[in-house]
Each structure stands twice: as C-alpha cells, then as structure tokens.
Amino acid sequence: MNRLFGSVRSRATLGATLVVVVALFVTGAAVLQALRSNLTAEAGTQAEGTARAVAAELAARTPYDQLSGLDSKSGPVQVVDEDGNLVAATEDLRWISGTVTDQVRPRPSASPSPSAPPSAPAREDDDDDDDDDDDDTEAPRTPGTPKAEESEPALAPGETGGQTTFGSGAATVDDDTADYRFAAVDVRTHDRGLLTVYAGAPLAAEHSAVRTALTVMLIGFPLLAALVAGMTWVVTGRALRPVAGIREEMAAITASEDLTRRVPEPETHDEVARLARTTNETLAALETSVERQRRFVADASHELRSPIASLRTQLEVAAAHPELLDLDGAVEDTVRLQHLAADLLLLARLDAGERPVDARVDLAALAREEAAGRTGVTVDAEPAEVAGSRGQLGRVLGNLLDNGRRHARETVSVSVRREGDWAVLTVADDGDGVAEADRERIFERFVRLDAARSRDDGGAGLGLAIARDVAVRHGGTLTAGAAPSGGALFALRLPLAPVT
Questions:
Q1: Which residue segments constitute the domains of the chain, with CATH numbers given?
Q2: Which residue of 206, 274, 406, 455 is most buried, as measured by CB atoms within 10 A?
Q3: pTM value?
C-alpha cells in the first residue's frame, strides 16, 4: 500500500479524486435539499390555495355538505371548530395524521349551527382526539389559535385569516395512502364561530423527483469520479514522463561516472523543463569542479615530484660521497617543498569552504609590515580596516609582493585607499606587465606564463590563485591590469569593516 501511494502520480490521482468526490457529495446534498424544499413549497402553496378556497366558501355561509373542496380529488380536507371537533371532512377520508385531529368523520359540534346538516355518528375508534406524531418540524397548532410569533388581530365575521400554518403528515383517501403537505387557515363565520380549515396537497411529486435525482447521483457520481481519476492518472503520467527520463539518465550518469552526459530537456516551459536545465547546469558545474580537481592533483603531484626527487638525489649522493653534499641546495629544496605543501594545504582549506576569522585588520599597517625588509618596495597607505583573517590577508599581500619583485625592473609600489564602503589595495611594478588576454588565466592554479623561466625563480604557480581565493572568501575581488609605469597592477578590493 505504501509503495502504491508512494508516487506523485498516485497521490495526485487520489487527491484529485477525493476533492471531486467531496465536491460532488456536497453539491448533491445541496441539490437534493433545494429540490425537496422547492417541491415541498409548491405543495404547500397548492394546499394553501385549497384551504383558502374552502375558507372562502365557509365565510360565504356555504353549508358543510355543499363545500366544493370536500371532493376526494382535491386531497384530504378537514374543517375543525374552536373545540377541536371535526365538523366537515373529505368524503372518502379513511385515516389522517399531521393535523390537529385524527378524526375522519364529522361529529356534532358542541353548539351546532342551525344551517349545518346533522353530522354522522362518530365511530368508536375516532373517540381519541389526541394527535398522531408529526414527523415535520412544525407541530400542529390548536384550532383558531395562530402561533405566538404569528399572532394576528381577532377576525371579524366573514373574514379569513391572513396567516397560514404549514405541516407535513399522511392520509388515506379512498384506500390510497400517501404523504401530504398540510396548510391550516382560520375563518370566522357568521353563524358557526371560528373554524380552521386543513387542506393537504400530495408530496408524491417531491418524493418521486428526489428519488430520481438520488438514483441519477448514485449512478453518475461514481462514474464521474472514476473518469476524473482516470484522466488525472493519464495527465499526471504524461506530465511526469520527462521526470522519469531525467531520473533514468541521472542513474546512468551515476553508474558510468561520465559527467559529460546531460539529462534530456523537455521543449516545454514548465517546472519539469526548469528542473532539467538546473540539473544540467549542476552537472556542468560538477564536471568543471571534478576536472579542476583532477588537474590540481596532477599538477600538485608533478610539482611535488621535482623537489622531492632533487632532495633524494642530494641525500643519496651525500650518503655515498659525504664530501659532495650540497647542503645549501638541500635546504633550499626542503624550504621549497615546505612552501609548496603549505600552499596546497591552504588551497584545500579554501576549497573546503573554510570561513575566515572575523577580526579587524588595518590594511595600511599590514602593507607596511609586509613591505618591511623588501628592497625596492614603497608604501603609500591611509588607514582602512577590513574584517577577516590577518594571516590570510598577509599571505595575499606577500604573494602579490613576491610576484611584483619577480617581474619588476626596479621598484614595486603599494597603495591603500578608501573608496566609499570599500578598501582598495594596489600593488604595481615597473616590469613588462601582463598581456590583456592573460589577465584572468594567471589566477588559475599552476599557471606560469613564462615557460622558459626556472622553477626556482617562478615558483609553482599557486601564489595568485591563493590570493584570489582568499579575496573571494573575504567578500572581495582581485583583478589584474596595467600600471601607469607599464608594468602589472593588481587591485584587491575588500569591504570596509563596520564602524563600532
């Protein structure tokens, strides 16, 4: 089960289907309720019309046996006096519930009207005047007494009440039992007092319509839900098909370790296409990083091999012929090996994302400190504090000064100034400078533009690479340009430390 609903396709289909089912259920319930209410209201209107027609005849002093509304075709009708006695009813009425009385045969009134015909003797089973239980929410009221919230002025003789009370019940007319909507209307006659007319209209149409609608819903709603589920399954499958292709290609790339491969990019402009493009950009960056790492390892191995081989050769010669030991050369190779190892270790820490120590460093003081003891170096600096590692920033300035002295004819000048929110440190020499095409390449690792110079003079080609990496880690930049004297100009820009 978890595996079945563990896919986006399954969850999307289930979610869409549940939403549709809930919407259909709520809509169906609302439609049935509205249909039932409308049809019940129509039946009530019909019953009220019949009740008012009978009430009008009573107000006109029509005898009970001549009331036109007592025809069985008009539905069940009861006329009740103020004492709750049935004084007139539909001819074929056999049983009734939902009105004030369940009597179906008129009985003599307590004060019979002279114009009223003698009532038939009441049946023994009609002696009970208690009302049957009414399944409608409105309880029948006492004849001649409207609801408290619907009270109206006393009626004059020959006047029909303006208010109508509705209720639901059932009746048997001519051996046909059905549910009815009853309407009660009061009328005050000239000679028979206050009477209440109960008339019923059948609810068969309402029941039939509700049953038909319910049947249609029970059949149609599951089919519609199944259709929605099927369409959602198909649509999501097509939408996620590119994702499956991306996953398969990524699995193949992982298995083959071939970072030159790329995932297929859909021609659409949706989220899946953006995912594919982002994945390919990540693969390209990863390929570049891995290739850079491979070159770094290869170059580091090559650079380490030379001083180690030279040092080993000198030690082996010294072991066989102590008098031939070149002690100064051995020390020089050892120092060079030590510097190279330190550079490689610093690069490894920078690649690992080491954050610089959050300290305040005055670039002017640092420039004077690094320039001390170096011949041909001049410093023109104003105070400019930055946040970062004093050791790493000193390493940057030292590498720039070493590079400048290596290529300068006579002098190297250092300046520090403030430009807005930035501190700018420049190192310029009066050498031959750097060609514009090579001003970015010199910051790559193990790059030496002068292939003819010796390794002893040129170093391993890591100084400028380390300097730029440190500058970037401190939130700044390091660029190469042309100095006014024609040599190289290196500009280090770092954000000034916030004022405390």
A1: 34-209 (3.30.450), 271-351 (1.10.287.130), 359-495 (3.30.565.10)
A2: 206
A3: 0.49
